[in-house]
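hey so i finally got around to running the thing on that chain from the lab meeting. sorry it took forever, my laptop kept dying and i had to restart like 3 times. anyway pasting the input first so we r on the same page abt which one it is
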Amino acid sequence: MSSESWSERSRILSSAGLVVLGSKTKDKLEKLTSILPLIEAAHASGVVLLDSNTIDNLLSLVPNVLLNEDSIPTRKLEQSTLAKLDNPSPIGRIIATPQPQLEVAPRPHGLPHFSKHDFPMDAREIDSDIEIHFDITGKSVTEGSLLDIQNCFTSRLTQLRNLMISGNVLPRRPISNSDAWRNRHTHSTSDYETTLVGLVGETRWSRKGNLGFNIEDETGKIRCSLKTPSNASEYHASMDGLMDYEVIGISGYFIGDRDPLFLAQDIHHPPLKDHIKTPAGIDRAVSAAFLSDIHLGSKTFLATPWEKMIHWFKNDPMARTIKYFVLSGDGVDGIGIYPGQDKHLAIKDLYKQYSELARLLEEIPDWIDIIILPGNHDAVRPAEPQPSLDPEIQQDYSDAVFVGNPCDFSLHGVRVLSYHGKSIDDFVATLRSVSYSKPELAMKAMLERRHLAPSWGNKTPLSPEPEDNMVIRQTPDIFVTGHVHGHYMGNHKGVTLLHSSTWQDQTDFQKMLGFQPKPCILSIVNLHTFATFAIPFV
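ok and heres what got predicted. didnt touch it at all, straight out
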């Protein structure tokens, strides 16, 4: 009998997608020296359910796995598959026996082996190439004054208005609110529309279902109303809503004499055209892995799946394609983040949390470069953009790159925008289409608005820097967030979207909300092919 325990053998079978039926089947499986040829025969035959008779049939095709190693022939000529239902032959097709050097253990959870076309390069001998384009660390100059707040909003408006003009998304050149108000009697019919660009405020829904809001620029504020067009999708502003302080363009005209109202006929967002990615060169076709919200120190941290992941990193061929490991915030659970947190902590000392996280990350193979951002649970200021972790914390980490949140950087020329994602809370609270179960919709809304956190004074604290650094100035090749403990891999207008998985089990707060997280999923993207792969470890 194999030295493997039944629990380990059962796990391998389950990971391979096979279901064991009955105690007799278990007894037969326990007597095998190796179950790998049996798994191969089952997969080749299309077998999923293993009962006693099926085991006998499969073993007739691979008799060399019975009892002990002494019974295994020195030469195995061929392996058969079970007969198909429409095939009168007692055996199916004959398949060549794989060469020993090509045999690999089953992938976790029965996942298929990766394609060498999609993930072509071993990363172990490739030099790092990390270029930071934006990181607030050491560059924050705000004093939190009213002037700083005003300058921040002026910067936001100026940047996004210029993007709209240069991107040709407006039907005509916009005019200032003061000029529009001064000439409101001229622009009072659909024949004389005008275009405005400004910050949204005071959104509200009327009894008739129209969306009311104010639009403000440097010269004044105008009250507006937006009806739902007949062909509007659920994502149209009239159906979905608007974020306070997001920048939009509107086209329309004034109605009413005593209390004029700007009737918006159309809404314009900053341009987001179909993006053409810039891949890494074929000689740098390595991969990056993404994770978020480890929450080390919490009682709900999932230690066993972490050990499985480390084993995978050290043994799976696909892991050798990975050059970078990006942790997008909340590496630890922190201290005093919310009332009553203390009773949910396994490690109640902040520095011990970071030391233990450093120990866990140290187990990741040394050819992989680790990039660490902070999140709202980390020991940095809560206001975004956040600087990197303090040097006193960094000293426990022998080989990691610490950056702020958000961070705009390149890996071998591939542009990556990594943001922890606290503002997803505001998008969920404001837009009708966005929910915690679909964080990718918040990410798409950020890209469409060219801003990571438009709302001011709500759930996301923002630092009023003289230049608004939450504006998405350049469209990334890869956009990654975390924070809400979901998981998503997809594309939006040519941008690879990743919502990184967590390593924390369901919390009491999530149970109260009825939210089920998607933990322990490692997201992988090849930087040359942009192929994606998600590997679960639960």
